[in-house]
Specification:
8-stranded antiparallel sheet, D-amino Acid Aminotransferase, Chain A, domain 1, about 35% helix, 3 domains, binds adenosine-5'-diphosphate, Dna Ligase, domain 1, alpha+beta, 20 strands, globular, 5-stranded parallel sheet
């Protein structure tokens, strides 16, 4: 087992990883920018190293600084968390070349799945259904128009290097396609330095269903059921639940085993998630994230398994030690992402926390690095807390969520907490009757 792990991240996810390490008796090294000197992930870690100025490019993305921090502190392994270096295959390779263990999938799998065109082609080869569209990258406007005529509209142009909904544009007709094609390429070039795009049919009212997977270095793969992440704004997840209220037992079993079987054929190691769109009884693979996800928590709540601990065990070369039939699914879990932004205009609201009270009680979990007096820097993602509830039924989980949201006090900044209160008062949500566009329709209707 490792004695010391460097956590190459910040905020709630750095804390989340620290907690797993602590329970396993592993010492932790925090890295931080100058903007995060007072951050909770730094305070709780056994050791910390400042790796640069506030700009993420010069700190959390600064490979030499991170590797130097691991060397001087004598860390055995590096956990990248979520975002920043987590899906950087070259970094994963460098970590190993410098004699540290990379807590994550093989660089090869990160590379395959990091390019969504290659990812789609790979899983099609392994028998997974995908959204109909271009077979590969679309290199010219003429080719895009030809695809438009072949598949019909609406179409979605997506960036091969995509993430966070960037470089994604909908086209309603040929004229729209001409414009969207150029816009998507420009956005992809700016965001990822890679302007390759591909085209998919734009599904009208799908649900976003994803499957949490874990594979070890010995060819064993299990799944932890699905998560419904259909509640999105600008292709970004807002609230997630597991299991999905939109699937029955047969569909659930089908998507779980489809994903696990594909990952087994890939020889996938560590935690990963296969994302699907689900419409009219069909699942379509859209992408695989080769890392832990923000919403891994709800899968933990319904299975009782600590996914970060499992990632760490797997990285040591240990076998999973259990099979699919040993994973017991219990109850229902919901996660609300709380961002430091206005719940009406969604403008960022960084600043100092004045007054903080987190809810507690049975079935309530908070993953957050907030504390009273903490100053939220403006340099990073606006996610500040995850409120997660668990209940034996969906109704019980909802009941707990309602009262936990009422109890939660985050003073001094605006947060999206009121948005969650509005969502869970809606009958469509209560009935589990929503698709990936429901939330945007709801926001448009209620905030004008
Ligand atoms: P990213 O990596 O940028 O998050 P994804 O491929 O995961 O991109 O898609 C993000 C979201 O965009 C999905 O959850 C879904 O809401 C929407 N989306 C993606 N592909 C399609 C499609 N073919 N039709 C309709 N919506 C889509």
């Amino acid at each position: 087992m490792f004695e010391k792990i460097l956590i190459a991240n910040r905020g709630e996810i750095a804390l989340r990883i620290h907690r797993a390490c602590r329970e396993m008796g592993i010492a932790t090294v925090a890295v931080h920018s100058t903007a995060d000197a007072d951050a909770m992930h730094v305070r709780l870690a056994d050791e910390s190293v400042c790796i640069g100025p506030p700009s993420a490019r010069e700190s959390y993305l600064n490979i030499p600084a991170i590797l130097t921090a691991a060397t001087i502190t004598g860390a055995d392994a590096i956990h990248p968390g979520i975002g920043f270096m987590a899906e950087n295959a070259q970094f994963a390779e460098m970590v190993e070349e410098h004699g540290f263990t990379w807590i994550g999938p093989t660089p090869e799998h990160i590379r395959i799945m990091g390019d969504k065109v290659t990812a789609k082609q790979t899983v099609v080869g392994l028998g997974l259904p995908t959204v109909p569209g271009s077979d590969g990258p679309v290199g010219s406007l003429e080719e895009a128009v030809e695809i438009g005529q072949r598949f019909g509209f609406p179409l979605l142009i997506k960036a091969a290097a995509g993430g966070g909904g960037k470089g994604m544009k909908v086209a309603q007709d040929v004229d729209g396609l001409r414009e969207a094609y150029q816009l998507a390429r420009g956005e992809a070039r700016a965001a990822f330095g890679n302007d390759q795009v591909y085209i998919e049919r734009y599904l009208a009212r799908p649900r976003h269903i994803e499957v949490q997977l874990l594979g070890d270095a010995h060819g064993n793969v299990v799944h932890f059921g699905e998560r419904d992440c259909s509640l999105q704004r600008r292709h970004q997840k807002v609230l997630e639940e597991a299991p999905s209220p939109g699937l029955n037992a047969t569909q659930r079993e089908r998507v779980g085993s489809l994903a696990a079987e594909t990952a087994r054929r890939l020889g996938y190691r560590s935690a990963g998630t296969m994302e699907f769109l689900y419409e009219d009884g069909e699942f379509y693979f859209i992408e695989m994230n080769t890392r832990l996800q923000v919403e891994h928590t709800i899968s933990e709540m319904i299975t009782g398994i600590d996914l970060v601990r499992e990632q760490i065990r797997i990285a040591t070369g240990a076998p999973l030690g259990y099979g699919q039939k040993d994973i017991r699914f219990e109850g229902h879990s919901i996660q609300c992402r709380l961002n430091a932004e206005s719940s009406v205009t969604f403008m960022p609201s960084p600043g100092r926390i004045e007054g903080y009270h987190a809810p507690g009680g049975l079935g309530v979990r908070i993953d957050s690095a907030l504390y009273d007096g903490y100053r939220i820097p403006s340099n990073y993602d606006s996610l500040i807390a995850k409120l997660i509830v668990h209940g034996s039924t969906r109704n019980e989980a909802l009941m707990r969520l309602r009262r936990a949201l009422e109890e939660y006090v985050i003073g001094g900044v605006e947060t999206t907490l009121p948005l969650h209160q509005r969502i869970i008062a809606e009958s469509d949500f209560l009935n589990g009757d929503y698709d990936i566009r429901w939330l945007e329709r709801f926001i448009a209707r209620t905030t004008g």
